[in-house]
User: Fold this.
Amino acid sequence: MRLLTFSFLKNCKYKSIYYGMSRLISGGVLQPDIDATKEEADPKLVEISPSWKEDMKPELRATVLKDMQVYPDFITEREEADMLAELEPTLKRMRYEFDHWDNAIHGFRETERTRWSESSECVLARVRALAFSPSSGAGTPLPHAHVLDLAAAGYIKPHVDAVRFCGDVIAGLCLVSSAVMHLEHTTDKDLSLHVLLARRSLYIMKGEARYSFSHAVLGGEHSVFRGEKVPRQRRVAVICRSQPRPRDASDGTDATVHSYTD
Ligand code: OGA
Ligand code: MN
Assistant:
């Protein structure tokens, strides 16, 4: 019966997920066993700002480069189209919100999703295997993914994800349009970096990058990476986060994950 639940994995592009999964299921652990070493982050998609001089906090620079990585072409065009087609009916029923000036996000609509089509479930199994592998110490992913649809004119102001709603790892699939993310140290503005969130890439933000730096998704006019303009259209992110650490778990207030403060 349990195997039936995962029968979709037989059709996954990455068969190793299925075989690994079936092996683990018989051992009683529901964690896919994909060979995550096949996925390679591209360090060129992260750029340290000129204000972060060579001799400033070199250990922190090395750590943040390890803790903020982008995997280009993580999904195929087909997988992107399938995922979007699945999300579109829900998203189209919502209006983009522009009017809350104090929100961290401007020009967005969002939803959460737990149950996915076969194609998307395959993609998300690969995301979880890479970003939340048991050896990474990332903790367990939340059961739902957060779907954030930014309008062409939308942007996300600098914020640190609230620890009440999110643990150590934030893994985001980037659909429809590339965008530029800016990370800035919470106490020293000179320590900053830009990240090219290329269309169909996956980024994984954890550790220092997640806790000690704010992150922002830049609006069209500021959307520049390594001196080149990055045209911003509508952008959809499908974000998987780890469960909050037990000591940080929700205290019942109605703040959201992208509130400015923890
Ligand atoms: C957020 C956020 C980044 C993204 O929702 O908190 O920072 O990739 N999203 O859309
Ligand atoms: Mn965030």
